[in-house]
Design goal:
The chain is mainly beta and about 70 residues long. The protein has a domain of about 40 residues. It has a three-stranded antiparallel sheet, with no helix packed on it. The longest helix has 5 residues. It is flat and about 50 Å long. The model has no long low-confidence stretch (mean pLDDT about 90). Bound molecules: zinc ion. The site of zinc ion has 8 residues, from loops. Zinc ion binds next to loops.
């Protein structure tokens, strides 16, 4: 199995259907994209990520402390 967004192959099952064995949710350990086994995600070329892009992703700025 490959990640639909970055083509990574480190995919983990992060959830399964509570009743029966109907679906699983997968998550890519490289870009953290997740999807359900019952969908067939199609990522537009524009939103695909390459390894270099993932490594260079900006860190989300921390929320500054509230003024007292
Ligand atoms: Zn990925």
């Amino acid at each position: 199995m490959k990640c639909p967004r970055c083509d990574g192959n480190k995919i983990e099952v992060i959830a399964t259907s509570p009743v029966g064995n109907v679906w699983e949710v997968y998550e890519c350990m490289d870009c953290f994209y997740s999807w359900r086994s019952t969908e067939t995600p199609h990522i537009h070329e524009k939103f695909k990520l390459k390894k270099e892009q993932i490594e260079n992703l900006q860190i989300i700025p921390p929320i500054p402390p509230l003024d007292k």
